[in-house]
Structure formats: structure tokens, C-alpha cells
Amino acid sequence: MSKEVVKEKSMVLQKEMLGKHFIELSRTHETGKKVVYTFVPGNLSELILAFGMLPVYPEINALQSGMRKKSGSFIREAEKMGHSEDVCTYVKCDIGMMLNGNIGPTGEKLPPPDLLLLSYTGCFTFMKWFESLERLYPGVPVAMLHTPYQENGEMTEEMTNYMVEQLKQEVIPKMEMVSGNKYDESKLAGILENSAKAEDLIVKIFSTTKNRPSPIDAYFAGVYYIGPINSGFRGTPEAVTYYEALYEEILERVRLGLGPITPEGEMEEERFRLVVEGPPNWTSFREFWKLFYDMGAVVVASSYTKVGGMHDLGFRHDPAQPLASLGKYCMNCYTNLNLPQRIDLLAKYITEYHADGFLVNSIKSCNSFSAGQLLMMRQLEERLGIPVSFIESDLVDPRYFSYSNIKNRLDSFFQMLDQRKIIKGQMEETTA
Amino acid sequence: MHTEIQPLLETCKQLALDLQFSHAKKWKAEKAGRILVGYMPIYFPREIVHAAGGLAVGILGGGDHKQIIKGDAYYQSYICHMPRGIIEMALDDNLNGFDGFIFPSICDVIRNLSGIFRMLGKGKFVKYLDFPQNFEPAIGGTFYKKELQLVLDEMFRITGHRPTMEELNHSIGLFNRNRQLTERIYDIRQNYPWRLSFEDLYCVLRAGLVMPVEEHNRILSEILDYVKQDVGEPMDKIKVVVNGAFCEQPPLGLIKSIEIAGCYVVDDDLLVGSRWIQGDMGDDTSDPIGAIVDAYLTKSTFSSSVYDVNNPKEARLIALARHRRADGILFAAASFCDPALLDRPQLQKACDDAGMRYISFQYSENTGQFKVIKEQVGTFSDSIKLWEEEAVMGN
Ligand code: SF4
Ligand code: SF4
Q: Taking the model in full, what pTM does it have?
């Protein structure tokens, strides 16, 4: 690694945005601002903003707890109250955090929800999660938004109508009731304009990994880049400024021919380009990442960074049809795609981003992602003749991160990629 | 007289556990134009397949008598067992002859299994049936109606026949009858559970998933006549409701063990799909699909797969246990079953609050050893019996 990590402008901006958000959350008892708990996939950030409310994302709290090594004890706490070891650990981590005083990532107590917005998109467990929270916060209204699955690989008119009607008759009335504000479509449309700008930028940002070397890691750094767009800032001018700054920085790296920045500085040699399917592990995130950058492996595209929306397939929030575009946004999240769509998407990434290998990080917690991944992997291997590998871990349960198992798997995968490169080189020489 | 029922029970058991679905396949072969539509747990309105001249066949996994060779290559160890049994059957010849497959929206495993079936090219159609979680007729109802229409369209593509209003009403009537007979049997068993063992009841109901409803109604009528008689001897067992086993099925040995260990099962959710609609659907309307939709929106039972904030399942479970005069609840869920297991803490809390006793355990459809569960259930039964004796002595 070449040099010390220097905080770039975008990092400072992101820190400021998040800091401000958490201060706002900690002051709701003074400001009277209402708080909406909701999920990342299919999140209705713009609608929440349009009503002047503040979002809280329990999944993000859970992953932050994982990174801060607190999730293990939170999970045990939830298991003590009767939750099975077998179920999604995000849910247990969140419930454990709540039982422990609901202290958020900044060390400040998070306010309780005024509304539970159950955007039931791409994951069945979301519903169970908020049913549990509803019992833990009795009397808090729940707005249910059932997002139909793209079982046939498409969004039909009926599906969009279903979404719009639910927004009009279930979600918006509850938001009006909780916030005390009337729904203002022109205000929403204005917010959506910013969303579309941020979405344009994030697509450009993730496309820069087509360069050699890739200027960024689309998975390990990608999870930071998707922060603002996924966690309530989409639709704000701050998010647009952040993504403009980030894009500028990345373009500069491309111009200078630089590889990605890692926690230990800049990666000097790009040896392997990977496409990764599945969320990362958060409890040992740094160690996990190091296993890749130490070997010169960079992730050029990942499905996880698309859980908050498939903007690279052309979706943009549309101020001209605000509610329909919110509905379509929800239906378009990665885990709401059917398995053939997911395979096609990954195949496209592997081809367009010139990947050397495909890796699945299979997450014990997450049936939404994991069920079917083995077949997806085999299909990609057959279709593209690409080397594939499979590792297992969990999101926030430290009991399921086995460093040695993962390292062994990755070492053999990288060896395989190396050998392929040698063979490919030899073949190219003989044909030349 | 009393032993006459035995052959029927034997037949039901054999049909219930026949992973070749021979009875259904034979039915299809008897007449041209018939179709078989396989459906996964939990609920599917079989009425529409019946009206279209087909048979909806329940597929509940491979149980403990399907050896898994290929299925494990499709699923990680931390995913429940049922889908690997279904994949194994799909890759073997068990599901040959099925024209279509329905995957009701109950969890992400079933959802993604529908994608696997699509990729494997199984059947002439694969439909993930997205049940609405919005229960407003104009919103969720409209959406559900369209979903059912899509299933009808798929069947039409194969049969060239669209069921008429009369056919649909007729089918609805037959399934109403099926549910009525089933409920009558449950009602009688509630007071006289020794007249028909839970194992037998289970097999009788499960056999109904692989045969035409007319035939099953005849069987249920016979069983009903049988349980109306004063047969069998009561034993010193407690009455329990089993909850959480609605999808992956416990092996028959485990079902038996519960009874042997000292429990009469007076209600359960093992095959709750067949009892999903509580009461009758309208069978004399000009909009039979509307009647099916309306029944789903207003008469569905409680379930881990249904959004329940406005009608909490814990209250409904306690009410059911009280209605059945059960002494306790057995929470039995398949390992790694997120929907059932995530419900458990709140259901258990409701039991604590209501003074309803319970125990909880997990199983897998291929669990071979039930010793621990049997002991646990036995201790539970003994403790309740003891507690009651003490209470009586104290009075
Ligand atoms: S199952 Fe997966 S998508 Fe759903 S809450 Fe858990 S981690 Fe998130
Ligand atoms: S047993 Fe549970 S997790 Fe498995 S398929 Fe059935 S409902 Fe889904």
C-alpha cells in the first residue's frame, strides 16, 4: 500500500450529513419533528422528507452495531427474550439494541418511532420485524406498503396501480396524521428532482470501475458510497453535492490511473477483478476487506450496492409522476427481482466490467439473498465459463464469521484465478 | 363396526405419504384435458383449478422418506429442509406430469424456489402467487383478483377452457363442504379426541391434497360418521394446540410421538391451507372470483405469512386454544423457518400473559430421532396433569 489515507472532501461531506442527521434525531423532543422507522430496500425517503419527518433505518443501526462490535451482545439479548438462533440477525440485533436503551451509532439515544413505515420490499422478514416492533412500541401506527415481487421479471400496470393506491390510501393518510402536515405533491416532485440527479451521479460513479485499474472498490467502499442515497438523504441538495464531489474525486483517480483507496492506503496493483453477490459481513468488515486488498483483488461490481435501487438499469425517480415512480422504485430493488433477472444482471456485470471471477458471500441471516445463490453461481459458471467461489458468513452475528474458513476459500480462489491468468497469457503468446 | 374404518385410514395414509402422487396422476390419465397444478404451502384457492377441470395437488416436501442427493447442492445448510426435498422430487420423476406450479407468497425461500423452478423449466407454468397484504377490497382485493386471473390464464393456455360462473360456483360449493366436514370432525375431536388419533386425522386431511374434492368429501363424510360414534377409550392425556408447523411438515413419527407422550392434539396448523377460509365462501354469486377474493380478505385464519397488525395473531391463537379447551400449546416450528420462529416470542408472551402453558421445539422434516422432543412433551403433559391435580386438591 502506498500512502496514508487522507480524508477526501466527499468523506467530510458524508460525515457532516450523518452527524447533522443524528443531532436532529437527538433533538426531536425539542423540535417536535416526527420520526419514521423504515427499511432501506424500497425506502420512501422523499415522501418522509416531503412531510418534514426524519427517517431511522433499523438495518443501518444493526450494521453499525456490527461494525462497532456491539451486535453480539444485542443478539444474545434478543435470544434471551425467545428469539431463535436460526433467524435473521438484523432483527435480533435491532431488538437487542432497543432493549438496551436504543443508543444509536453516535452514542446518542435514538428517539422512538412515531410511525413504523413497513415498506415490505424484497424481503419477507421485514414484515415479521415490524410486527415485532409494533408489539415493542405499542400504539405506534404502522403503515404497510406491500410491494409485489417481480415474479415474471416485469412490473405490470396492475402492480404499479396497487402500489399507488396503497400510497394514496394507506401510507399518505398515516403520514398526514402523524406529521400533522398535508400531502404536497409539488413539494414531493421538487425533492424527486434531486433524487434523479443523485441517481444519475451514482450510476456514473459505479461505472468508473470499468476502468483499469478500477479507481474504487464497488463493494467494500461501495457500501459507504451508497450511504447517503439509501439512508434518507436521497432527494436532498446535500446528497447531490456529495455525489458531485465524490464523482469528481473518482474521475481524478481515473485520470491519474490510480487504484482504489483501502483502509491501509492505495491499492497499487490490481490483480483480480471480481463481481460479488450478497451482503458483506459487518462484524469483521476490515479483516474481511483486507483479505481482498492484500491479494490485489478489487470488486468491480456487486449486487449488494443495488439493494437500494437499480439505477444502473435506467430507473430514475420521476417528478412528473411522483407516486407511480415511488412505486416503481420499490419494485425495482435488487432483492425484488426474480432469480433469472438476478442472474442476467450479474452476467451483465461480469461481462461489462471485465471480471476475472465471481464470488458469492452467502449470508446465514438472509434467505432473501441466499436461497437460490448456489444455482445462480452454477448458472453463471456455465454461461460465462468464469471461475466462481462461495464463502459463508453472517451480517452481524460474530459467531458466524470464521476467518480461517473464509481465508482458505479465498486463497484457493485467488490461486485459481492466478493460474487462469497464466494459462490465458500463455495462450495469447502462442496465438500472437 | 369400529374396525371398518381401518382400511380407509390405511388408504389415506398411503395416499398422504405417496411422493409419486400416483393417485393424482392416475386421475389425470383417466380423461383427456385434465391438468395437475402443484402448489406449495400454505394456502391456495383450489376452487379455481377444480373449476378449470384440473386438480390442485399439495406439495409439502420430501418428508423423511425422500433421500436428498441433489437437493443439498441447491441449498445452504442454514435454509430449512423442505425446499431441498421439493427440488429432489422435481429433479427425479416425482413431479412429472404436473402442468403447473404455484408458489404462494409466504417467505423468501418459497419465493426464490419459484425462480429455481423457472430456471429448471419445470411444468408449463410457474406462478409465484403474491397474496395481498393490504386487505382493502378496492386495493388488495383488486390486486389479488388479477393474480387469480393470471393463474386462470395459465390454465386456459393449456386446457383451452375458461371456467364459467356456474362451474366456479359449483367448485366453491364443494370446497365449502370440504371445510365444513373438516371443521365438524375437529369439533367432535375437541371433546372426544380418542375417537380418531391425530396421526389418522392428519393423514385423512393430507390425502385430500392429492385427490379430487368430491372423493375427499366422501372420505370426510365417512370419517365424520365414524367419529360421531362412541368409539375408543379416553386416556389420561392433556389437550394441546400445535402451532408453527404450517409449511415444512413434521415427520409422521414425530406426530405420533406427541400423542404417545401424553397429548391429544385438538387443533393445529399443519395443513392449515385446507382450513384457511373460516366459514363459507359465497357459492351463489355472479362474481365467484370476487367471492374467493372476499373470503381471503375477510375470512382468512391467522398465520405467520399474513400481516396482522390490525388483527393480532396472538389474540387469535389464545382464543383458538380457549375455544378448543386446550390445556396448552406446543410451538413446533421447522428449523430455520423465519416466519414461524420470528413470531414465537410474541406468541409465547401472549401465552404468559394469558396463563396459557406452552412448550417450544424445532424439528426438520427428516428428523429421525424424536426422543428429546418426546421427553419434553411428556414432561409438559405430566406437569399439567400434576398441576391440575394439585389445584383440585387445594380446592
Ligand atoms: S432477511 Fe435479509 S433482507 Fe431481510 S431483514 Fe434480514 S438481512 Fe435484511
Ligand atoms: S419452512 Fe418456513 S422458511 Fe421454509 S419454506 Fe416454509 S415458511 Fe419458508
A: 0.96
